[in-house]
Amino acid sequence: MKLILARLAILAGILGFWEFASGRLIEPYLISKPSLIFTTFWNWVMDGRIFFHAGITAMEAVAGFLLGAAVGMTLGILLGRAEKLAELLNPFIMGFYSIPKIALAPLFIIWFGIGLEMKVLLTATIVFFLVFLNTYTGVRSVSPELVNILKLMGANERHVLRKVVVPSAIVWVFTGLRLSVPYAMIGAIVGEMIAANRGLGYLLSHSSAQFNTAGVFAALVAIITLSVLMNTGVGVLAKYAMPWEKAQKNREVSI
Amino acid sequence: MTRSPALAAVSAAPDPATRPEIIRYENVAKAFGALQAVTDINLTVHEGEFITLVGPSGCGKSTLLNMAAGIFAPTSGAVSYRGEKVSAFNRKVGYMTQSDHLLHWRTVAGNIAVPLEIAGLSKKQIRDRIEDLLELVGLKGFGDNYPNELSGGMRKRCALARLLAYDPETLLFDEPFAALDAQLRLKMQVEVRRIATQLRKSILFVTHDLDEAVALADRCAIFTSRPGTIREVLDIPLPPDRDLFHLRHNRDYVDLTARLWDEMAPAISAEEH
């Protein structure tokens, strides 16, 4: 509680100083001011514009996120178990990984047009690599000793996969997913900034083009809110998928 | 357990050599690339015997266990199990290593269930078996805890229950208690001896703890340093129902450990260089 109050105090301090500085210390067209940003934001809320644009962005980010995560997880597990194939493909994967994925946007526009698909696929490509590499690492880190112990118990490859590989990779998958949230937003928003007439990225670049600084900041507020929501979503999902993590916190039962 | 008539047979057969043999190493050598791990290994394990393997680090004691389990084959010589050459994963054996390898996303009961699920038992059969096993290893009431809520000793008990769940007739231990503190280790040694006799398991137990090697074993195989080979197999004339807590007052035990220490001292001090 104390912590929350302290945080609110810091926020109030920043906003207060910002409000004061605007027009007195710094030109208002550069930094606008909180009251104006709030008014702009509120107007967008009232005419529903913010929900429309945020809805589009959220859909792109979530769809791309799910697509990238699903493909990344599947391939990560597959290649994690197929050592030879992974070794064969390694230079290609790393080469492709080293491209800043945003640089693929122009190519994606040519291939998929400027509609939703392009943003979803751009987002999915970014998320894919993060989830894929994490899942792959997770699968590779499964102890061969443990696999042998299971095989002595009569386990076949399917048992090993279902009982050990997939569950132990989950921790890594969620690490990948957590890392991916901001990147998924980057994919969706940059996609919209480059080519779109809707979405928060569009709202951002449109406001900027009209020197509507308050609008730019209001769009940023919406983007932050969306990111926080997605982060929370992944966090809730992680808690649900990994109940033993909670147990870690109330440990220490003595013999 | 259904094995209780056999339990009487154990104490009735004082000479292990009269029992049927279960594992036989014949002139076994194993090399990993240029590294000769073990050479010239000859050892026969009989049914219900508890054999400890001691020797300097890296002398290939674990290699013996891996070959009995069929994890890899010897470079030359033969490893046979009940008269048959070990060729693939030997499902008659259970393996326990220094790391307990519990699945941290499963509860204690869930961990013990793994081999039972693999065997395709029904939910009810699994539940009943888990209850018995928890009782056997002294973990009653902890079935719903996650491994990370347990102490080191309890984790070992859980790993032991999982190992016993599919009832392998031979147990391979690779320094399972090395990471435990002295008191906990003694407790676990008592458990293993008790369970081994009660369930009439044959056991190969690798350790670098010389006291443990004598305290637990019916016979103790002493290794030379790499390339490892068995220098001597020591008979341990301690009774099957020995009391591990009071062994320190046992003349035979004291003499044997002293002798083992003397034998191992040159190899151990050589390791330092």
Can you put this structure into words, describing what you see?
- The complex is a heterodimer of chains A (255) and B (273).
- Chain A contains 12 helices and no strands.
- Chain A has a domain at 55-80 and 101-241: Orthogonal Bundle (MetI-like fold).
- Chain A is 83% helix and 0% strand.
- The longest helix of chain A is centred in the C-terminal third of the chain and has 38 residues, at 157-194.
- By secondary structure, chain A is mainly α.
- Chain B is an alpha/beta fold.
- Chain B has 2 domains: 21-57 and 69-92 and 178-245 and 268-273, Rossmann fold; 100-167, no CATH class.
- Chain B contains 8 helices and 10 strands.
- A 6-stranded mixed beta sheet of chain B has the order 6-7-8-3-9-10, sandwiched between helices. A 4-stranded antiparallel beta sheet of chain B has the order 2-1-4-5, covered by helices on one side.
- In chain B, a hairpin with a 2-residue loop joins strand 4 (76-81) and strand 5.
- In chain B, helix 3 (108-118) packs parallel to helix 5 (152-165).
- The longest helix of chain B is centred in the last third of the chain and has 21 residues, at 251-271.
- Chain B is globular, with a radius of gyration of 19 Å.
- Chain B starts with a helix and ends with a helix.
- In chain B, 44% of the residues are buried.
- The chains are: A mainly alpha (255), B alpha/beta (273).
- Chains A and B meet through helix 8, helix 9 and helix 12 of A and strand 6 and helix 3 of B.
